[in-house]
Carbamoyl-phosphate synthase large subunit (Myroides pelagicus), 950 residues
Amino acid sequence: MPKDNSIKTVLIIGSGPIIIGQACEFDYSGSQSARSLREEGINVILINSNPATIMTDPSMADHIYLKPLTTRSIIEILVAHPEIDAVLPTMGGQTALNLCLECDDKGIWADFGVRLIGVDINAINITEDREQFKQLLEKIDVPAAPASTATSFLEGKEIAQKFGFPLVIRPSFTLGGTGAAFVHNEEDFDDLLTYGLEASPIHEVLIDKALLGWKEYELELLRDKNDNVVIICTIENMDPMGIHTGDSITVAPAMTLSDRTFQKMRDLSIKMMRSIGNFAGGCNVQFAVSPDEKEDIVAIEINPRVSRSSALASKATGYPIAKIATKLALGYTLDELQNQITKSTSALFEPTLDYVIVKIPRWNFDKFEGADRTLGLQMKSVGEVMGIGRSFQEALHKATQSLEIKRNGLGADGKGNTNYDKIIEKLTHASWDRVFVIYDAIQHGIPLSRIHEITKIDMWFLKQYEELYILEKEISKYTLETLPKDLLLEAKQKGFADRQIAHMLNTLESKVHTLRDEMNINRVFKLVDTCAAEFPAKTPYYYSTFEAEIERPDGTRYVSNESIVSDKKKVIVLGSGPNRIGQGIEFDYSCVHGVLAAEECGYETIMINCNPETVSTDFDTANKLYFEPVFWEHIYDIIRHEKPEGVIVQLGGQTALKLAEKLEKNGIKILGTSFDALDLAEDRGRFSKLLEELNIPFPQFGVAKTAEQALQLAEKLDFPLLVRPSYVLGGQGMKIVINKKELEEHVIELLNSIPGNSLLLDHYLAGAIEAEADAICDGENVHIIGIMEHIEPCGVHSGDSHAMLPPFNLGEYVLNQIKDHTRKIAVALKTVGLINIQFAIKDDIVYIIEANPRASRTVPFIAKAYGEPYVNYATKVMLGHNKVTDFEFNPHLKGYAIKTPVFSFSKFKNVNKALGPEMKSTGESILFIENLRDDQFYDIYSRRKMYLSK
């Protein structure tokens, strides 16, 4: 039992819907925390309004409240559960901390006798209130940048006059750098100061002297009640100060820090954590270091909670920070807890890494028309990837291969920038693709000293880049037949993909793979083990690398592989890669449930994914985790190593689906719906023929490959037209056009950005109602798990629409058509598993917009609304373990559930907020109403057409 035996029931506050600055890393932390508490026999009550997460799954807590994160909701829960002893607010990001503070201000915790664990109110106030924090640093003698706080416009102007430019404006109590800005000159100051004061809930900003070009570091700490402190991880930002850490490329362990400065930084961070309050839990500290020999250190901020970086640090080291922080909050000490990886040593240790990790953010600027695409103090990325390798170069390459932006890594893919002015501009105004542009600059002959002068990125990193380019040049001198083995091995050890090497040698990827086989240059798998192999690791968490052969005394040669293949029957689940708009945390939810269901069916489960924020990449979710890019070459090598019964692709969104064709071609079994059926649903021509055979109506359409063909089609189809590229997710590139000029412009733009793609032109059913259905099918039997009606009219992407479950305005005649069409299509596609179908309803006729035989964005929402584990059932059907008729479906929902989209437009000034066929929301919440007279429903319904755009 925990040391503090008085704690029997704990309330965990979640982080709410996914927004830029607060993504699914808090779902991961919250899930781990809930499991950690329940291991101790503690009752867990959880509040979170996000239906798409594992954290809000019924299995995670004793009671889950899918309610808005407000003090009103907290009071309702405390009234219903007088047994709650303590609240843990450190797992739900800034949202949870702010709500916790508000409850404290209103005396709610005191009224109900609930105590705070994992942090104390003073710590939150000191660290969030910029003025208090500044005074604390002065008091404990920790260096800080010259700064002053302003609570009015006039005060701000006076401070600027005193300090001079450049300056940084940082609002108090905000998340993801909201409202923060660099001010380089007086002309911009007034606007940015006003914006900052408005962004802060207490209308306070800190104005400090800009430390432009200084190096930035983050430390993750844990402390117990006996004041033992361990530093779990030191993370170095490759990008210098001036770019938000959430938008920076980060590396662990720190690469360019002298040991002397590291020790000093450790001491300062421990001093800071001890000075902000007497609590047991986790902390994140950020420092700036001057880029000269002196290496002066300045403290930037401290967060007394699990942070975005804690999730990264947990995945980087294998040390489960949220799980241990939760146990410390209960009163355990570090030396009493077990190291989760070795199971034989204590948690009072600091991980040692014998590998390197690189995190690269993933942006979605294409969804925010008119957005400023340069990076700065305000976070703009929607997700991130992490690469693990034996060197910085290998990890960097693996991270770039994980991004899914049609790049094969750094260089050697023919897609680099070749325009000098463009390269200089992108280096000067930090761009989202700067990680690639640095390579382009070196390739273009721009000296490293010049790149360093512009970007202030440490020379060590730039030299690493230069080595990669020198190697590319060297390999390009050879052909496939003449390439020496040592050069091929070096290229693989430095992370170059087979595709890149094929590009250098002017040959095919498959031929490079064959050459590797012949030369015995094969991937080997290593354990992520926290102790650099000093103690044996018990956790099957792997990354791949390449090693030179070792010769035994008898002359035989081998390479060391730490991934031992068992003789059990195995199944691989392909993950969904980085979060992005159109493919978010809901696919992580599906993957986790898929893994657990396969385990229940007696399979050894293997997860492949590269997203450090998710529950699917937790080291104990699957029986084996390969933290690798969801990139063909990596997948194929793992499959050849593990030899599974088959691969599940329909739970990982478009990322996994895109690999289905290659799996099919290589004779690897796809579990569930076949590749042919997946392709048939994507291929508009084939799918329409199927609908014709089934006598199911669909909007008139045509396929065009040129602007000329599109204009000819327009004559036949009639405006308005919905134009979209095939095989894309989240409505990418979709637009409604109303005349020939708009059609021509959009088609030319699309064909330039996605060359060789077919464009689909549909007659747009103006004024139609949109609905969608999700179902499970075993090839013969179909069970419809939910039918949702969209509140917004047809033309707003389904991910951006409010969706009502069950429908609120569809008659029996229409509903019967929907049910009939769904069953017919699911069986005709030979669906085995999940299918989502979208409909447009006009004049009581139900038209098919599209069918996706895979897990959809809405499956977790329906599962939460009805309280049914639908992904579990669907996975068992995919595996052939069950038929749909084996399950007893018992959905229960009083009234209606509304899926409410959440947008992150506040991160982008002057962005076009209009909604249309291209998805723009970053997350969602769930709202339960008893009947249609509910004021919240009226409000949503009255605004349904407000943002509609073409």
About this structure: The mean pLDDT is 92. The longest strand covers residues 782-793.
